[in-house]
From TrEMBL:
Its main location: membrane. Its EC number is 2.7.8.31. Residues 274-457 form the Bacterial sugar transferase domain. Belongs to the bacterial sugar transferase family. One of its GO terms (molecular function) is undecaprenyl-phosphate glucose phosphotransferase activity. The chain crosses the membrane at residues 12-33, 45-66, 78-101, 107-127, 279-301. Keywords: Membrane, Transferase, Transmembrane, Transmembrane helix. It is a multi-pass membrane protein. This is Undecaprenyl-phosphate glucose phosphotransferase. PANTHER family: COLANIC BIOSYNTHESIS UDP-GLUCOSE LIPID CARRIER TRANSFERASE, UNDECAPRENYL-PHOSPHATE N-ACETYLGALACTOSAMINYL 1-PHOSPHATE TRANSFERASE-RELATED. It is found in: Membrane. It is an enzyme of class 2 (transferase).
Length: 464
């Protein structure tokens, strides 16, 4: 539905080729600083192919890595690049371990990452300036007019007039019912009857029709005019009377359907990608980390207090289906398991306090991930008692159960974890959980995982 899709695809190809060339240059420069020559040894030539291939895969997860237009801010652009390099480093490190590439110089790898990041970042700055220059030139203008003067017309005008969206030139409004008191009245060029002649005289490229869709004859007439004179005719339906927030419009065959909430994880490809990552990541943790820490944690728990090593509890999952959630036991055996832990809770053991502080108590939940009851990233599964209570006092609480719960989540890395003595604290958690659902991306999951590990290292004051 993006009329500039071919342009973005071309940009993507050019920038990907440039990125590979800059990565090659980075390898040569790094090899020179490390070994005093630009000629790569055979193993580094092969490693360059792996490095570039992983970059191609990583950049494919986020179209914004290749966006140089003004749709997103410069800060967001470089944030996307940093996230892409972090994910690239994670995948490449996994490849080094899996393929036993121990002979690769760590210093050369560091030099390569630094030079690649600097060169690719600088190339984006150059392309952004070049894009801004070209799109602001006269030859890049797409001249357009808007039919109508309602909320849809004004919203469209304000969006296209944004400085961050160059390349279009507004030529005026046309409406039979123009309001003389409107702050935009000076930009009205005439009635709808004047539209066709104006378009021919001023070489208009696009007409945006924002009026109600009940005048079929008018729409048919304008459609025929545009077809005969090589003008693009676009209809912008006004849903402001019935929908008071952003919506998604998609088509099932030729039937338009409106979704009042963004639902990235309703797309099959996104669900498959997320599930595949969950399986690979949970298997890696279970096979690599769990065998090492399990004996240590099990002995520590058993030496301090009597009771089982693992704690099992029913938690509400996707669509409120209950599942058995696994954790390391962090409390003395008690009959108050549906009561949320509080600061200095006497039920928590000394070992349990450490496990909670470092999130190690949740390691067994990777088995829940493998079984499909949980995801690595998602809204945290609350207690059943919390589900019953907060569903009645927080309007959007149940929305968080549209997706699979996670070991870590957006709310937790944003500072909203621990005790929720007051309703507004749970409201903030729900707010962040809904934001996660509506803005999900693979890169967002990677960022949350990185922040979770970082918080484990530095410690969290609300973890108890």
């Amino acid at each position: 539905m993006n009329k500039y899709q071919h342009y973005y695809s071309f940009n993507r190809i050019i920038l990907l080729i440039l990125d590979v060339a800059l990565i090659a240059l980075s390898f040569n420069l790094s090899n020179y600083f490390r070994y005093g020559t630009v000629d790569l040894a055979h193993q580094y030539s092969v490693f360059f192919v792996l490095f570039a291939l992983v970059w191609w895969v990583v950049s494919g997860f986020s179209n914004f890595v290749f966006r140089v237009d003004g749709i997103i801010s410069i800060g967001k652009r470089f944030s996307n690049l940093i996230n892409a390099f972090l994910l690239h480093a994670f995948i490449l490190a996994s490849c080094i371990v899996i393929f036993n590439l121990e002979e690769i110089s760590r210093l050369l790898l560091l030099y390569t990452y630094l030079s690649s990041a600097l060169l690719i970042g600088f190339s984006r700055l150059v392309f952004m300036q070049l894009n801004k220059y070209v799109t602001n030139s006269d030859m890049a203008y797409s001249r357009y007019v808007i039919v109508g003067s309602g909320q849809a017309a004004l919203s469209l005008y304000n969006t296209f007039s944004n400085e961050e969206n160059p390349g279009t030139k507004f030529m005026g409004f046309f409406d039979d019912e123009a309001d003389p008191n409107s702050p935009y009245y000076s930009q009205f060029k005439g009635s709808i009857a004047d539209l066709q002649e104006y378009c021919l005289q001023h070489s208009i490229d696009e007409i945006y029709y924002t009026k109600p869709l009940n005048d079929k004859d008018q729409i048919d007439e304008l459609t025929a005019f545009c077809d005969d004179n090589f003008v693009y005719f676009r209809i912008v339906p006004d849903f402001s009377a019935i929908v008071q927030k952003d919506v998604n419009l998609y088509f099932y065959h030729n039937i338009p359907i409106i979704s009042v909430r963004k639902e990235p994880l309703e797309q099959v490809t996104n669900r498959v990608m997320k599930r595949a990552f969950d399986i690979v990541f949970s298997l890696a943790v279970i096979l690599v980390i769990f065998p090492i820490v399990l004996p240590i944690i099990a002995l520590a728990i058993r030496f301090e207090s009597k009771g089982p090593i693992f704690f099992k509890q029913l938690r509400p999952g996707k669509k409120n289906h209950l599942f058995v959630c696994y954790k390391f036991r962090t409390m003395f055996v008690n009959n108050q398991t549906e009561v949320q832990a509080t600061k200095n809770d006497p039920r928590i053991t000394r070992v349990g306090r450490f496990l909670r502080k470092t999130n190690l108590d949740e390691l067994p939940q990777f088995f829940n991930v493998l079984l499909g009851d949980m995801s690595v990233v998602g809204p945290r599964p609350n207690l059943v008692s919390q589900l019953d209570h907060y569903s009645k006092v927080i309007s959007k609480y149940k929305m968080r159960h549209f997706v699979t719960p996670g070991i870590t989540g957006y709310a937790q890395v944003s500072g909203y974890r621990g005790e929720t003595k007051e309703v507004h604290l749970m409201e903030k958690r729900v707010e962040y959980d809904v934001k996660y659902m509506e803005n999900w991306s693979f890169m967002m999951d990677m960022k949350i995982i990185f922040l979770t590990v970082w918080n484990m290292i530095k410690g969290e004051k609300n973890a108890y």
